[in-house]
Amino acid sequence: MALTPVFDPPYYAVIFTTTQTEALDGYAETAERMEDLAKQQPGYLGIDSARSGVGITVSYWRTIDDIQAWKRNVEHTEAREQGRKQWYASYTLRVAKVEYNYAFGMP
Amino acid sequence: MALTPVFDPPYYAVIFTTTQTEALDGYAETAERMEDLAKQQPGYLGIDSARSGVGITVSYWRTIDDIQAWKRNVEHTEAREQGRKQWYASYTLRVAKVEYNYAFGMP
Q1: ipTM for the predicted complex
Q2: CA of A71 vs chain B CAs: smallest distance (Å)
Q3: Which chain B residues have any C-beta within 8 angstroms of a chain A C-beta?
Q4: Residue B52 CA from chain centroid, whole number
């Protein structure tokens, strides 16, 4: 699996951390669709995800405006509503400005 | 499993994303020790980790100075050297300032 490469700062990270319910019908399809859709948005730079106990998804964006525009996407808004109703027991979301970064062993 | 709660911004996130080798002797013990040691450092706020394919660990700190001081910790420096020599095929590390955050279903 490939990691999202680093970029010249500043750029933005959305750190989305979750715990799930057991009612995961439809979750995997929606998560995959949201990832595909995010990749088509202006300012999208990359996404990394892992889940073991908790889930962590970090997506990277050029500007805060790009993040806000993606938040307003209708299909994304519906997916978030379904997430709160059904799939997520809890979550935190943080928007953070990357000030510096470095990489090891990346292509 | 409990998520790290949100805090009043600004504060800082260290987003550490990894792929591993197959030479994981000693990794689990060191990872656990580093988490215990991080918790004792000034400015430490919390940590969330998940691994599935890639690993993502996000630790939260009050200031950049707190992050830099933890980076200079001798035992932590030795662990990072071992990580590059043995456990990690690749990694990225980003230091980012949390500008806003929100939570759902948190205690």
Answers
A1: 0.97
A2: 14
A3: 1, 3-6, 12-13, 15, 17-19, 48-56, 58, 64, 84, 88-106
A4: 16
